[in-house]
Design brief:
6 strands; two-stranded antiparallel sheet
């Protein structure tokens, strides 16, 4: 829409002709804008919608503004028609004609009836609503139309932008939500039984409410651009939509995890049974070894070996039951917990076996050290030395008798090592408390 020139003295014929040409072009532009607003898809949607909230309030005012716009435009059209008629009376306008044209084109010559200017909910030029009529210059009338047009178009464009963006996106997300719900139901993820099922119910309610609110009150989901004066400057507020889209994505990942459990549940159960079976066999071996140690080794502390925990077997049976009844949402966390506990149980069993058999390992190490020194002595031709034979036989009787006292046997081995070292002229063999004590003859 255009803006007319400010008022001035009596216009000459050229000024009048230029003003009429400008006003004619302006009239055409205004009419084009009003018709475009009248045919705007957003305006047609607003007319047929059941509106609520801020959109209802603003549309009531906008409807009145559009009605007032047409009343102003009709008055503007009449004033322009009158001016053209006066100018067309004669080729060369008289002084009286120019005075009349100047008043019509620059003075407050446009009268709008009070019934039109005071349309309910429509803003008036000075904020009044009870005047019988209002007087305008063509300049102020155009400014007034520009103002009403901008506010009306802004409201229509904003509502149309929200309706064009959000409902379609909500519908697509709702369709994805329905697919996810069916998939969740197939794997036992249901409301009240699994958190993801509860999340799906909440997302469904939120999207349903969101769509209803967007359809009835689109301006509640419009964020104007700060500092922008252009009609429709802003964007739809997708905060709620984006939050629910992320929540649905989280649920989909949870469902995928449950589906993965369904696919490899049997393999994981077999592996669990194998790990627990190995742990049981290791504990059984540790218990057998403990009896052997108690029979063969004297004066030593042998740790007690506990039995296999029955709770793991019970949980394994529960997991198998979940699989048989396709309760994948319950099987998934149970399998993860069991797998960790089974590995811990196998580690505990191995540590028990190591702790129980430690005395036998000490005895084996002492036997190996004794035989190694005997071989070394034989290589130096001292195998028949009576003193060494006596020390060797004493140590061997202790190590190969049951029960074996490891502390006494270790002292006997060290005495044999000392004797051999003295005869061989080598370095002193470390004492029983020396950390080098069990390194063997190479020390």
């Amino acid at each position: 829409m255009g803006v007319t020139d400010p008022a001035g003295p009596v216009m000459d014929r050229d000024e009048v002709d230029r003003a009429l040409a400008r006003l004619g072009a302006e009239h055409e532009a205004i009419e084009t804008s009003l018709l475009a607003l009248q045919d705007h898809a957003g305006r047609r949607l607003l007319e047929g919608a059941e509106l609520t909230g801020i959109t209802k309030e603003r549309w009531t005012a906008a409807e009145a503004s559009i009605t007032l716009l047409w009343a102003y435009f009709d008055a503007y059209t009449d004033a322009l028609r009158s001016a053209r008629e006066i100018r067309s009376r004669r080729r060369w306008s008289s002084r009286d004609d120019l005075v009349e044209l100047t008043e019509l084109l620059r003075g407050q010559s446009v009268t709008v009836a009070g019934s039109a200017a005071a349309t309910p909910n429509a803003p008036t030029l000075h904020g009044g609503s009870g005047k019988l009529s209002e007087q305008f210059t063509l300049v102020t009338l155009v400014d007034r139309m520009n103002e009403l047009y901008a506010t009306s178009l802004d409201m229509v464009v904003a509502a149309d932008a929200v309706w064009s963006a959000l409902p379609a996106r909500i519908d697509l997300l709702a369709a994805e939500l329905q697919r996810t719900r069916r998939l969740a139901h197939s794997v036992g993820v249901r409301p009240g039984e699994h958190p993801a099922g509860d999340d799906l119910e909440r997302i469904t309610r939120t999207l349903t409410n969101l769509r209803a609110q967007v359809v009835s009150d689109p301006l509640a989901y419009w964020v104007p651009t700060q500092g922008s004066s252009a009609p429709g400057g802003g964007k739809p507020d997708t905060t709620v939509y984006d939050r629910e889209a992320r929540a649905l994505e989280d649920v989909r990942r949870e469902i995928d995890a449950v589906l993965t459990v369904r696919q490899d549940a049997e393999q994981r159960l077999v592996k669990l049974r194998d790990v627990l079976s190995r742990a049981d066999r290791t504990l059984a071996e540790a218990r057998t070894a403990r009896g052997e140690v108690l029979a063969k080794i004297a004066a030593t502390e042998v740790p007690v070996v506990s039995g296999p925990p029955t709770v793991l077997q019970e949980q394994l049976a529960t997991a198998a039951e979940y699989r048989r009844h396709a309760q994948w949402h319950r099987l998934s966390p149970l399998l993860e917990s069991l797998e960790q506990k089974a590995e811990d149980e196998l580690l505990r069993a191995r540590e028990s076996l190591t702790a129980v058999t430690a005395p036998l390992a000490v005895r084996a190490e002492l036997r190996g050290r004794l035989d190694a020194y005997k071989a070394k002595v034989a290589r130096h031709g001292l195998a028949e030395d009576p003193f060494l034979i006596e020390r060797y036989d004493a140590a061997r009787r202790m190590l190969w008798s049951a029960p074996c006292d490891l502390r006494v046997a270790e002292q006997a081995v060290l005495r044999y090592q000392h004797a051999a070292a003295e005869l061989l002229g080598g370095p002193r063999v470390p004492g029983p408390r020396d950390p080098e004590d069990r390194r063997g003859p190479g020390s």
